[in-house]
Amino acid sequence: MQNNFQKTGFQANWIAFKTIIRKEVVRFFRIWTQAFLPPVITQTLYFVIFGSFIGSQLSEINGISYMSFIVPGLIMMSVISSSFANVVSSFFSSKFQRFVEELLVSPTPNWVIIAGYVGGGALRGIIVGTIVFIVSVFFTRPTIYNIWLILFFVILTAILFSLGGLINAIFAKKFDDTMIFPTFILTPLTYLGGVFYSIDRLPEFWQKISKLNPILYMVDGFRYGFYGFSDVNIWYSVLILCGFTFVLTIYCHYLLQKGFGMKN
Amino acid sequence: MNAIEIKNLTKVYQSGAKALNEVNLTIKQGDFFALLGANGAGKSTLINILTGLVSKSSGEAKIFDFDITKDSENSKRMVGLVPQEFNFSVFEKVIDILCTYAGYFGVERKDAEIRAEEILNKLGLWDKHNQPAMTLSGGMKRRLMIARALMHKPQLLILDEPTAGVDIELRHEMWDYLVELNNSGTTILLTTHYLEEAEQLCKNIAILKKGVIVKNGSIKELLQHMDSQTYILTVNNIKNLQDFFGNGVIKCDDNTIEVTIENQINISEFILELNKKNVAVLDIKPKNNRLEQLYLSLLKS
What we know:
The complex is a heterodimer. By secondary structure, chain A is mainly α. Chain A has helices spanning about 10-30, 30-35, 35-55, 65-95, 100-105, 110-135, 145-170, 175-190, 205-210, 215-225, 235-260. Chain A has one domain (about 10-260). Chain A contains eleven helices and no strands. Chain B contains ten helices and 14 strands. In chain B, the strands form three sheets. A six-stranded mixed beta sheet of chain B has the order 6-7-8-3-9-10, sandwiched between helices. In chain B, strands 2-1-4-5 form a four-stranded antiparallel beta sheet.
């Protein structure tokens, strides 16, 4: 009864995955002035103001200049906001314009939908992160202590915040709802996540409060990959990142399975 | 084989509204089937359940023997859906919309591009394939939705009011294309408010009223069971018909009467009666499309 035109099983899922990724890549290159320029301009301003103007008056942190210290944090900031923004805007638009129905009527399993959208978001985050890294080279010479840890933290963080963007998009009922989480939660947590300072220099009480912020572990682990020092145990960071990614993946799958915000 | 088999299908929305109530329906493979009903009767809910856009509350439904819940991946492969409202990304190019959709069904991009060219040529849209969908006219967007639904070569095509707001010329072109598809073996389920469309295209119909199927069968069979039929007659010497008024005959104006005739009486017998009164019938036509008459009588009952 079924035609050979449509592939089945793993082959079909692989084609569907590639299709979503392609669609996402075409989308963010179509809007490249929104996708790539703003984060690069913002981070360049951070390098100029915090790194050159203010940073030149500050003492070294663990033997490296302030400018070099903030590079990993600023890259991570861009990765987090770009990954999140890509998925939340793309998936919410597909809900708003109802072309998410193209996916819902298709045999594409929910885990492939998650993989496709998260893959697209992570890809944009990593591209933006790479551009910011290239820009940073014009201001300082960041060293690389462990490339595998750098890749691990940047990829998993991009995946984690793409998952966050997907959950936000699933719950969002109007465009304003897509801005609440990034504005009121994500941005403050990122700024307080040790991007601009080492928590070692905070009073003990604020050190404890800072350790409740999951973004601290991502920034800190990523920075460890560059310079080989960290404020918290690197394995805690690995564990926390893996744990959050696992929990959000399961939660995303549950929401799609239930058809939350899309069916009924 | 049955293309669609529905047993005791019920849908109660979270608001408590019962959109479908124990619906039973079978549509044979190769059929051209119309699902009729007023707005809010449950047509779209039924279609959305079959295609996976809405979850059912209870009952079961199978598409080509694949259960829509237990074997949803296979059942979805068999169906192409043309929804009521435009639901594609208006920023994307026509070709990308089609190939992306096909990709979700496991069709390789290179195969999808060939298929897209074939269908777009058929529907007169190939010259627009590289344009963003937002630049298309309303009629072109409708055709794009049909093209998209056919990209993965489905065995069953479901169209939810596909010709709403479409001009007459395009509607007829679409009808011709649908007939051609049906003749080539694709089963078609259609919902429409244009009853002449259903009468002209479909072999079988079901009428939904408040979530319940009130009539189901072949159009011929259903029309045979109509109790009466109403005609509009243009006549001369209307003043000779004073005795006729009432009893199913209404004077519309100085030359026109409306006559409702019971099914057991032949219209020619009535015309002979008029002739006896020296009244000639200059023109005769049914007041409504016959299916429309049946439909209205069922909705009123």
